[in-house]
Amino acid sequence: NAGVTQTPKFRILKIGQSMTLQCTQDMNHNYMYWYRQDPGMGLKLIYYSVGAGITDKGEVPNGYNVSRSTTEDFPLRLELAAPSQTSVYFCASSYGGPTYEQYFGPGTRLTVT
Amino acid sequence: AQKITQTQPGMFVQEKEAVTLDCTYDTSDQSYGLFWYKQPSSGEMIFLIYQGSYDEQNATEGRYSLNFQKARKSANLVISASQLGDSAMYFCAMRPLSGGSYIPTFGRGTSLIVHP
User: Which chain A residues touch B102 with a CB distance below 8 Å?
Assistant: First the structure.
């Protein structure tokens, strides 16, 4: 099993550009999440999905969009990148229910200049 | 709403000593899960240990144990016999049962440095 994979690992964007962060999991998890982590801070939830075709906003959704057309994939779209979106982005997946841990991808370090 | 508080931004411990990382939580839920994750300097988040709110016994996983005090709403991580490889950020998290969404809430983390 590859677990949770994310691409790219690093990316530099200019202000106003757009990009998609890819996330794929092969564990048949129904839940998937996107977080951002700013220096010295914990994880802030951007969007999550409880299954294919179902997505919902987290704590900091502005400037981002997601889709979940399959169980495996959960891409995160950044439209009109801003310097405030400079961060490390983590994708995670889990089974539903409060007893299940999350599995995280390796992260994408994004810089917007 | 749930809230996780980790009040220690940084901790230092001597190799082979034990260390306790604090975590308190606030929730109105009666049933929930508590988790600890490790984030080494390489960046990936690694699950360490889980404690259910109805579990009578404190969870243990190798050198990790969770000191769960439900009445005080605390879920402290104890690392015994610290190793240099334990140097990392540690995050406490909670998943509630209510509402059916099971969305985790994370604390801001504690940086642990293990000295030789």
Answer: 31, 96-98, 100
